[in-house]
Write a structure and sequence with these properties.
Shape: globular
Number of helices: 7
Structural class: alpha/beta
Radius of gyration: 20 Å
CATH architecture: 2-Layer Sandwich
Number of domains: 1
Strand order of the largest sheet: 3-2-1-4-5
CATH class: Alpha Beta
CATH superfamily: Ribonuclease H-like superfamily/Ribonuclease H
């Protein structure tokens, strides 16, 4: 039985790119750059509540937009739960008119075969990273570290409901307010504001701070 194409080598060949290792242009970085507009990346993030219960968070990020989608959190990442998360992702992408063609993920056993099959039916090919090579999924790994540093390491999570609330707040903050160097300090869902050039307006700036999650996250805006 023929195995479906799931390696970078096969994907490069199908795209008409010679994957021979001796050619310097055929690198993983080149693949990411050439397919950036059509690339998603996903991964599981683990955290622990105050009671010691372990929770698994599944998130997806766009390579070009840097938009994060938190698909959910669970104590039991079963095949049925991950499959439903894949269905929800496909519907969300369709609603947003996102034309993704590839999803990068690691070889974690929490991803069932049906997860890949659902994405493939939607026209999204799953690309597996190498074993113990997190740099192949660097943008997703960077978001995981950001989520830990800016949210989870500074928050005492009581239970599942509290975790989901905190994650949704962080998702909105990350997508709508937090600037990203990788996209010229823009925000995934909001364009950069027009620069202020009027000296009078600069001298009378009125910046207001809005706190999220009891002061864990800060947003700064010009007063109306």
């Amino acid at each position: 039985m023929k195995v479906a194409a799931s390696t970078v080598w096969e994907l490069l060949k199908e795209a008409g790119i010679d994957p021979a290792p001796e050619r310097a242009s055929n690198t993983w970085a080149d693949f990411l750059r050439s397919r950036a507009d059509a690339l998603l990346a996903c991964d599981f993030l683990e955290t622990v509540t105050l009671s010691g219960a372990r929770r698994y968070v599944l998130a997806v990020i766009g390579h070009t937009t840097r938009r994060i989608r938190i698909l959910g959190a669970t104590a039991h990442p079963t095949a049925s739960w991950a499959t439903q998360a894949a269905r929800n992702l496909v519907m969300d992408l369709e609603d947003a008119s996102c034309r993704a063609r590839y999803t990068i993920r690691d070889r974690d056993g929490k991803f069932p075969a049906l997860f890949d099959a659902i994405l493939k039916d939607a026209g999204i090919e799953v690309v597996l990273t190498g074993i113990r090579v997190p740099r192949m999924n660097s943008i997703m790994e960077r978001w995981v570290q950001t989520c830990r540093r800016e949210l989870l390491d500074r928050t005492l999570i009581w239970n599942q409901r509290h975790l989901l609330h905190a994650l949704r707040e962080f998702e909105r903050f990350y997508n709508e307010h937090r600037p990203h160097q990788g996209i010229a300090n823009a925000r995934p869902l909001c364009p950069l504001p027009q620069p202020i050039t009027d000296p009078e307006q600069i001298n009378r700036l009125d910046i207001r701070r809005h706190d999220r999650l009891g002061g864990i996250l800060h947003e700064y805006r010009h007063a109306a």
